[in-house]
Amino acid sequence: MKKYLSMLLAGVAALAAVATAQAGAIDDAVKRGTLRVGMDPTYMPFEMTNKRGEIIGFEVDLLKAMAKAMGVKLELVSTSYDGIIPALLTDKFDMIGSGMTLTQERNLRLNFSEPFIVVGQTLLIRKELADKVKSYKDLNTDEYRITSKVGTTGEMVAKKLIGKAKYHGYDNEQEAVMDVVNGKADAFIYDAPYNVVAVNKAGAGKLLFLDEPFTYEPLAFGLKKGDYDSINWINNYLHQIHNDGTYKRIHDKWFKDTAWLKDME
């Protein structure tokens, strides 16, 4: 009997250890009372800083609704994009929510939720090039200088598909766009939702928006490898908000209404 009881207790202890090991980001956030999300707030209209210093945007509102559904507070941790994956892997926050494209390369390092939106790379070019540049293929020569934000799929695409052009990346989108506005670069490669805003907000009438996306880019939330419980919860959350009207309300606020532009610097 004692031997059986010992074996039973050992089994219970083993199960408890497994349960503890399987506790993921969502469970940790619920216990802590705070969901910590790593984010580079420079990607209009997904995450950006308004003139009062507040981080706002489409993805921010999705995350606020997520935290509310969990019954916790949302804490946004500003992180440079090129260091955001290492920061997650060293426990600086629970998950990445920063307009991140689900790529196969990144998926080797992270688990991803289902996509919450699909975008694609587009071009902002100097207006003077309107007759010469009709697509990204026309830029693929050393005659042109192109730019994007470092660490993004814009940079990856520039180097992969437009590799013959001269490339220079910047730490933020605004600097890269201004390089084209000021005539120092010929084209800026970036996600369509950002470019559709930037052409008017920062273009100064000097840019042309080639709005046909030439890549397929699903954006998703990133978590540590093996955190399947958290992925399951987030995917169920995304299904819920897509069907109860929450997603449409948030989406239309940022993509169909331009009132938020008045709140930007």
UniProtKB/TrEMBL annotation:
GO cellular component term of the entry, any: cell envelope
Organism per entry: Pseudomonas laurentiana
Protein name: Transporter substrate-binding domain-containing protein
Residue span(s) of domain Solute-binding protein family 3/N-terminal: 34-257
SMART domains reported in the protein's UniProt record: PBPb, PBPe
Highest taxon above the source species: Bacteria
InterPro entries cross-referenced by the UniProt entry: Iontro_rcpt_C, SBP_3_CS, Solute-binding_3/MltF_N
Pfam families tied to this protein: SBP_bac_3
SUPFAM superfamilies with a match to the protein in the record: Periplasmic binding protein-like II
Family under the similarity heading: Belongs to the bacterial solute-binding protein 3 family.
Localization of this protein: Cell envelope
Residue ranges occupied by any Ionotropic glutamate receptor C-terminal domain in the UniProt entry: 34-257
Molecular-function annotations in GO: ligand-gated monoatomic ion channel activity
Keyword field: Signal
Signal peptide positions (record): 1-23
